[in-house]
Specification:
This protein is of the alpha+beta class and 752 residues long. It has five domains: 16-213, Orthogonal Bundle (Hypothetical protein af1432); 218-366, 2-Layer Sandwich (Beta Polymerase, domain 2), CATH 3.30.460.10; 407-482, Beta-grasp domain (Ubiquitin-like (UB roll)); 493-659, no CATH class; 667-751, 2-Layer Sandwich (Alpha-Beta Plaits). It has 29 helices and 21 strands. A hairpin with a 5-residue loop joins β7 (408-412) and β8 (418-422). The protein is globular.
Length: 752
């Protein structure tokens, strides 16, 4: 909430007098008046940056017709309001120099030092790089900006000042750009400002974006607020008078100011809760600034003695601060004529932090206070953690976005340490928030002493105990319910690492078998004798290292037989001839349709081996393996229609595969059961499956047509092997209502 007086009309081009006023306000003389807190050296640095920027932008004009330099000056003026240091102010003046004026980072280092150059570089967009899509370009730009921000928060402060001034002068831009820029502001910059506690900037960005994105809605709401303001003015004045008198009587020193919800926050409440304007009751409120924390609680008591509080509307953000460091007491009371009025109580220091967030760090320093704040540091550090595990810009941005709207819940560790988590966060999110090793080793959890599933959402006041095991590891299914970017990136990183590790092992096995088919008993080690030979092979395949080559073979990006032939040829040139006996034995015993020896599978291979869902092979089926490009080894039944088509197109990618004598897990199989329609049939069929020790994982019932006597039930359940499947099918066929029970396999039809 805030009092933001914006025109009810959509912004248009500035009039001549307005443009002149803006230009005067953005002059360097006006900026100088705000720099009294800088020492002479700092002031000199800022003045040199201004001269350099003025010269660089010479001849450039804004859409309003003003000299372009007025924009960097306005950005620097906003940064000066936050009392940022001379380096940040210099970077604010120079923030468009690299992008628009052809100035290099080296030029800036030579003139202004490495820190100023790094700040400007972090702010520079990546327009000159080529990307496949606008979204990819935007994601890469944000990734660069956010990482620069995580290393130095001044980057985002300058960027937010830049965006604020652009939004204030949006009327000068072509109307075709309003929608894109306003959407970007609402979806990215306003949430970042909120995440860092810059509430004044957050509210202004939201309001300006709303004004330009939906000008008609903004205008209608603005008129409605003006009418309501006139109608309720007397009531609000009465509340203000009564409250001020009560605090005076109680001996409390209070600075009392009226507040009003922004138009955008009213619009979001109406839209989200499907309310009319008349149904939004908490438009008005008061903010109380008090000397000490104890006075805040005393003021709360005074208010609740005067008026009835609205149940469920009291929030103590002093005892438990918000994720962005915000602290205040909130209560809503029922005032005269049933008017709901919200009160916020906070100290002067809390008010400073509430309005300026991370920028309060510099404001506190200016006041000589030792109470410097590190607001947002945990979130900023999490950006660096996510980047360590996510090199893809789009994926990085996906992770970050989920953390930008942190409506928080507060939970406790068993040792009573309080932790703030985003609303919707689960046990797994909590485990990764404690430590990445705890998350990776999570096996079970208790909430308030009771065992719960790992996907359980956290609630305020929960006491969370995570149970770990040295043999536990992240489950891919966790990605379906985790809420935080940190947890999501950690899980994906672990799974990718494991997938590459397993693929490397599979690739080594496949290459060794392919070499045997070429008459080479053992794969040569990469030592002094064969080092040069491996270097030539890596040059031939385009791989950086031997491990990369083996991983590519395991993932199907390289064909083992082709690599083996090349390696065998190079070994032959080096004087290592193939073993004639081994060569003839391997060729006579090799599978007639494949180019390499067989691979044994048992279900324990995780990411390196996949079992095709088109035919769902189970132990006992005749199977073949297909090395899909980038997919690793995919196992099909040898009669699978999909496999037959792949074999016709890409036969060299097939290898012989056989089942282990002792598979390590159960495998899914698809079965269609045709039944007579009747009461309780589904329950009897499901009972027949589970009584045969098969676990049902999916059920699909065909839409029932009126008067139809039979219907198909499609099940997916797990079995140990083909013998176990036959037992389940036998159980099903003995159910009186079952007309048919058959296995379903793609391209093969139904199999008894």
């Amino acid at each position: 909430m805030s009092v933001v007086n914006l025109s009810s009309k959509p912004t248009g081009p500035l009039s001549g007098s307005a443009a002149a006023a803006n230009a005067a306000a953005a002059s360097f003389a006006a900026l100088t008046e705000k720099l009294s807190y800088l020492n002479p050296e700092g002031l000199d640095l800022v003045r040199r940056a201004y001269r350099y920027a003025d010269e660089a932008h010479l001849g450039q004009l804004r859409n309003s017709g003003e000299p372009y330099i007025t924009h960097p000056i306005a950005v620097a003026a906003q940064c000066a309001e936050w009392k940022l240091d001379a380096q940040a102010l210099s970077a604010a003046l120079l923030h468009d120099a690299m992008e628009d004026c052809g100035i290099t980072k080296t030029d800036l280092i030579e003139r202004f030092g490495i820190q100023v150059a790094d700040l400007v570089d972090g702010l520079t967009k990546l327009d000159k790089l080529e990307f496949n899509t606008r979204e990819e370009s935007q994601a890469e730009s944000f990734r660069k900006m956010l990482l620069a921000m995580a290393r130095d928060v001044r980057v985002i402060l300058i960027k937010l000042a830049d965006r604020s001034h652009n939004m204030r002068t949006m009327g000068d831009m072509p109307r075709s750009k309003w929608g894109r820029i306003s959407n970007e502001t609402l979806e990215i910059y306003a949430p970042i400002a909120h995440r860092l506690g810059l509430n004044q900037t957050y509210r202004e960005l939201q309001e300006l974006a709303f004004q330009h994105l939906w000008p008609w809605r903004h205008q209608v709401l603005s008129k409605a607020i003006q009418k309501a303001r006139h109608r309720r003015r007397d009531l609000m004045q009465k509340v203000e008078y009564e409250v001020a008198a009560a605090f005076l009587k109680a001996g409390l020193q209070v600075r009392l100011s009226g507040r009003e919800k922004t138009l955008y926050s009213i619009y979001k409440k109406m839209d989200g809760k499907h309310l009319s304007f008349a149904q939004v009751t908490d438009i008005y409120g008061f903010r109380l600034i008090l000397p000490d924390v104890i006075d805040c609680y005393t003021a709360l008591g005074v208010l609740h003695q005067m008026y009835k509080p609205v149940p469920g509307k009291f929030k103590d953000h002093i005892a438990i601060a918000k994720l962005n460091g915000y602290q205040s007491l909130h209560t809503t009371i029922v005032g005269p004529s049933g008017l709901n009025v919200e009160f916020q109580m906070r100290t002067e220091a809390m008010h400073l932090v509430a309005e300026t967030g991370v920028a309060a760090h510099w404001l506190y320093k200016d006041k000589g206070s030792s109470n410097e704040t590190n607001l947002g540091n945990k979130w900023l550090q999490s950006l660096l953690d996510i980047q360590d595990e996510t090199r893809d810009a789009t994926e990085f941005w996906d992770h970050v976005k989920v953390d930008l709207f942190p409506d928080a819940v507060y939970v406790f560790t068993p040792k009573s340490k309080i932790m703030a988590m985003p609303r919707g966060a689960t046990i797994v999110d909590f485990a990764y928030a404690v430590h990445s090793d705890v998350g990776d080793r999570t096996m079970a959890a208790k909430v308030n002493g009771e065992q719960v599933p790992l996907r359980t959402e956290l609630r305020n006041g929960d006491i969370i105990e995570v149970i770990t095991s040295s043999v536990a590891s992240p489950n891919p299914a966790w990605l379906g319910f985790v809420r935080t970017g940190r947890a999501r990136s950690k899980i994906r990183h672990y799974l990718k690492t494991m997938a590459y590790s397993e693929s490397q092992g599979l690739g080594e096995k496949l290459l060794a078998q392919a070499l045997r088919a070429e008459g080479i008993e053992k794969m040569p080690e990469r030592n002094g004798v064969h080092a040069a030979l491996w270097d030539k092979l890596l040059q031939f395949t385009g791989s950086k290292t031997q491990d990369d080559l083996l991983t590519d073979i395991g993932l199907g990006k390289r064909v083992a037989s082709i690599v083996a032939k090349r390696l065998a040829s190079m070994l032959s040139d080096a004087g290592m001839k193939p073993d004639a006996l081994l060569l003839s034995r391997e060729r006579f015993t090799a599978h007639e349709t494949v180019s390499q020896g067989s691979v044994t599978v048992d279900g324990s291979e995780n990411a390196s081996v996949q079992y095709a869902t088109c035919c769902r092979p189970v132990p006992g089926d005749a199977i073949v393996g297909y090395l899909g490009r980038g997919e690793g080894l995919v196992v099909h039944t040898d009669q699978c229609g999909v496999a037959q088509r792949l074999k016709y197109k890409d036969s060299e990618r097939f290898i012989a595969v056989e089942w282990s004598e002792e598979p390590t897990r159960a495998f899914e199989v698809a079965v269609v059961v045709t039944v007579s329609n009747g009461k309780g049939v589904l329950a009897r069929v499901a009972s027949a499956i589970t009584s045969a020790e098969a676990d049902i994982t999916h059920v699909l019932m065909a839409d029932e047509v009126s008067g139809q006597e039979a219907t198909d039930l499609r099940f997916v359940f797990t079995v140990r092997d083909k013998v176990h499947l036959d037992t389940v099918l036998g159980n099903l066929r003995r159910v009186p209502a079952v007309l048919q029970a058959q296995r379903v396999m793609s391209g093969v039809g139904r199999e008894a």
